[in-house]
Description:
The structure holds two protein chains of two kinds. By secondary structure, chain A is mostly beta strands. In chain A, about 10% of the residues lie in helices and about 35% in strands. Chain A contains two helices and eight strands. Chain A has helices spanning about 20-25, 65-70; strands at about 10-15, 35-45, 50-55, 75-80, 85-90, 95, 120-125, 130. In chain A, a hairpin with a 2-residue loop joins strand 4 (about 75-80) and strand 5. Chain A is elongated. By secondary structure, chain B is an alpha/beta fold. In chain B, about 40% of the residues lie in helices and about 15% in strands. Chain B has a five-stranded parallel beta sheet. Chain B has a four-stranded parallel beta sheet with strand order 2-1-3-4, with helices on both faces. In chain B, strand 1 (about 40-45), helix 2 (about 50-60) and strand 2 form a beta-alpha-beta unit. In chain B, helix 1 packs across helix 11 (about 280-300), helix 5 crosses helix 6 (about 160-170) and helix 5 (about 130-145) crosses helix 11. The relative contact order of chain B is 0.16. The model of chain B has no long low-confidence stretch (mean pLDDT about 95).
Amino acid sequence: MLNIGGLNQGVVIDHIKAGGAMKIYEYLNLEKQDCSVAIIKNAKSSKMGKKDIIKIEGPITVDLDMLGVLDPDLTLDIIEDGKITAKRNPRLPAQVTGIIRCKNPRCITSTEQELPHRFRLTNKEKGLYRCIYCEQAYKR
Amino acid sequence: MKHVISPLDLSMEELDKVLSLAESILQDPEKYSECCHGKKLATLFYEPSTRTRLSFEAAMLNLGGSVLGFSSADSSSAAKGESVADTIRVVSSYADICAMRHPKEGAPYVASIHSGIPVINAGDGGHNHPTQTLTDLFTIKTLKGRLDHLTIGFCGDLKFGRTVHSLINAMVRYPGSRFILISPDELRIPTYLREEVLEAGNIPYQESKVLEDVMPKLDILYMTRVQKERFFNEEDYIRLKDSFILDAAKMQCAGKDMLVLHPLPRVNEIATEVDDDPRAVYFRQAQLGVYVRMALIMTLLGISAG
């Protein structure tokens, strides 16, 4: 069993769909943040088979709920003074801009580069986002 | 200011008003012939679409207004790299209302965000074509006398056909709608439409691969073209294409009041021998499209008769 030390203050992003950790690492721009990061890939999970985990020691200034757009099933464990003070799924924002990109080659955003990539939550249960321009569902 | 980008941008009440106005125009076109005197419609067509553009232009001319615009991206400043947003900002100072056709999905929506005049989506890629849906609804209402409690068969390419998706979305808003979906496996309606619209709304529907079998049940048969390029191989296309071609023999299976609609252009999916059948109303449908576009232009400009 791989063991990485517990956190004093920070967040554990757990139950990330296997293979999804790097996307989250990039979105949070962790490379440039002043914090220690442990990325665990392909960890065994009784619920998911395989999962990724990211442990971050230190203050995070970005809105972690936005991570739900990338993976609605992940969980956020907030750690303070070495204890989990909150454990929850991300709350899915009704609209997001600039986090995900429309992949539809027929979408106006494919030719007009300055347009912001904006998505609207259309199915809360499934965590489904659709492009506000072409209404294509975002496939993770 | 109101724009019409999706068929669902009009509430049921607004839709009823547009259809009623179209009906009044149909009864007495002369009464409306000067309604839009001094008003200009800009037709911004970034890709050719003769029928839709001419229908919009005929609608505005019938109302006493005038038209300006372009009919392909090559003859517009888009060829120089101008954005849709900049184009509509400029056009807003030249015209009172605009109809936009664009190959990219969402372009008319982008225009509506930056526009100083009402924008009508005249078709954006495979996405929306709300005035075709209005045309279909007006045709059904005019020739059937109602929009509720109808069994509508959609035949052909139900996967990529945006007119089919839009009309299903529009018809589920009326009570008693039933759908029969006739297509090869390769061209069945998209899963999201089946699950999120039909099943989620408990709308009765049936799928079939044989047109003749279901013809007797239909009030409306909405035909679309099965395109060769949609198939993985030519063998499948040859095997299946005739099943989805409407001819006089198949029309014998239909009720005497069933109507055949088609968004046009027709290629070979309806044999020309069907054209003389009084139930074939697709050319009448194109004509009614002008009246409903007249009603929409008047509504968006806030103009009432007289």
